[in-house]
Amino acid sequence: MSVVPAEVLPGRALPVGDAVAEEAAELGPRARLWPALCAVYRAQLSRARVARIPLLFVATFQSIGIMVLMRGVVDGGGEARAVVAGSSVLVVAFVALNLLAQYFGQLRASGGLDHYATLPVPPAAVVLGAAGAYASFTVPGTVVTAVFGCMLFGLPMANLWILAAVIPLAGAALAGLGAALGLLAPRPELATLLGQLGMSAALLLGVLPAERLPGVVQYARDLVPSTYGVEALGLTFGAQPDWGVVVLNLAVCAGVGVVSLAVATWAYRRAAVR
Questions:
Q1: Which residues contact 8 (CB under 8 A, 6 or more apart)?
Q2: CA angle, corner 46, sides to 44 and 49, nearest 5?
Q3: N or C end of the chain: which has fewer CB within 10 A?
Q4: For residues 178 and 161, what is the distance between their CA atoms, to the nearest angstrom?
Q5: pLDDT per position in the chain (274 positions), as tens?
Q6: DSSP code at position 44
Q7: Closest by CA position to 237, among listed 151, 167, 174, 141
Q8: Could you tell me the sign of the dihedral formed by the alpha carbons of 129, 134, 139, 140, in that order?
Q9: DSSP readout, 172-228?
Q10: How buried is 87 (Cβ within 10 angstroms: 0-12 exposed, 13-18 middle, 19+ buried)?
Q11: Is the distance from CB of 261 to CB of 171 less than 8 angstroms?
């Protein structure tokens, strides 16, 4: 009779320590932030391309309708600039804040966060990728709204290139806020409600001229992230824009975007481990 060592038997299970070591050795390295962010962005862009286009049309049509209604009240000057700038940024608020709050609220309620939690991607990549994809859908609607508003109120279009800075910065601030609301809300219905309230605040405090608002409401206006994007865009419609103030408003918008996206990333980590 020949004796075969137990270590070479085909059906023998590995010791617990060896099995854990072998499983750990098979795991790939954790993805870096930028490649993971790009992958999540492309996936979200492809997923939302069909579902969100009708909603983008609704957002654009809503903003254009508001400008048409305000045309009977506002003739021109600074009030016209405020209406056009506020209506243009409202498209960003509708998609980046309202829809993103609903998306993350439904994702949390349906257990979709568990899928992302199993992937070797940083939490910031998930939040930034989704926020970037939703903000990208606002570009055509915002441009169409701004051009139509300039034609309706007779404003110059020479400085509309500033939208290349206003859209991503205002989109980042509003998308971070929308993602945080959706992830922190205990129920998807509450996330939808918070997103609607946020968009309503952007509508009332952004489209209406600031000088027509009560003093207390004007202070509340400064707390809405989209206000600084509206101010930056509205200043460029003037004959001689104060570019220093424009850059300052954009810088504030960028700072709010960094803070809101950081809060959204923390909220994602908090929701993913529950």
A1: none
A2: 100
A3: N
A4: 26
A5: 445 455 444 544 445 444 444 444 444 455 677 787 888 888 877 766 665 667 778 888 889 999 998 888 887 788 899 999 999 999 998 888 888 898 888 888 887 777 777 777 788 888 888 888 888 888 888 999 999 999 999 999 999 999 999 999 998 899 889 999 999 998 989 999 998 898 888 888 888 877 777 878 888 888 888 899 999 999 999 888 899 999 999 999 999 999 999 999 999 888 876 6
A6: H
A7: 151
A8: positive
A9: HHHHHHHHHHHHH-SSHHHHHHHHHHHHHHHHHHHHS-GGGS-HHHHHHHTTSTHHH
A10: buried
A11: no
Q: How far apart are CA 157 and CA 161, in angstroms?
A: 9
Please enumerate in sequence order all residues whose Cβ is within 8 A of that of 39, keeping only pairs 6 or more positions apart, or say none: 31, 121, 125, 129
Helices (H) and strands (E) in the chain, counts: 12, 0
Tokens 């790939």 -> residue: 28
Chain center to CA of 105: 14
- Copy the structure tokens of residue 119: 């992937």
Provide the b/e sequence for 216-250 (b: ≥16 CB within 10 Å): eeeeebeebbbbbbbbbbbbbbeeeeeeeebeebb
Provide the phi-psi class of 24: left if phi over 0, else alpha when psi is between -120 and 50, else beta.
Answer: alpha
Q: Which of 90, 85, 93, 96 is nearest to 230 (CA)?
A: 85
**Distance separating alpha carbons of residues 75 and 53, to the nearest angstrom:** 32
Is the torsion defined by CA of 43, 45, 48, 49 positive or negative?
negative
Q: Do the beta carbons of residue 69 and residue 153 sit within 8 Å?
A: no
Token digits of residue 163: 């939208």
